[in-house]
Amino acid sequence: MPHDFKAFPELTNNQMQFYYGQSPHKQITESFSATVVKVHDGDTITVAWQERDFIFPVRFSNVAAPELNEEGGHEAQSWLESRLLGTMVDIEVNPDKRVEKWGRILGKVIQGGIDVGEEEVYNGYAKTWEQRNDGKIIDPIKRPE
Q1: Is 11 within the bounds of a domain?
Q2: Which helix (H) or strand (E) element contains residue 122?
Q3: Overall domain count for the chain
Q4: Is residue 106 part of a domain?
Q5: In Å, what is the CA distance from 65 to each residue of 19, 43, 68, 93, 126?
Q6: What's this model's pTM, rounded to 2 decimal places?
């Protein structure tokens, strides 16, 4: 069955061995710099990269923010938008875990030398990914007063 590159432009590591030669665009296998053109929520941004002729989403690999329909979700999105929209960021990609289950690139987002995910946790807009995996996100995220 052929891969749908329009709906899922990023290949998982398992798919790379089968579809890499068919990919109509460069697959991301290492860190890169791009411009933030949209903030979806508190842990996903859309970027424009000079190596591609289309924009694409990047999911923060080290934090989990509330969904937009959850308490704190819009606040996290708004903070991240004011922090990153229109800026150049570095995306640090782990070659072994570069694409998540929804087909988005995973990476640490660095802007001005600062890990924005860590900054988001520090400011109370997100939890670390480890805390989420441990089931520690039960109550809505409360920012320090």
Answers
A1: no
A2: helix 116-122
A3: 1
A4: yes
A5: 32, 6, 9, 19, 4
A6: 0.86
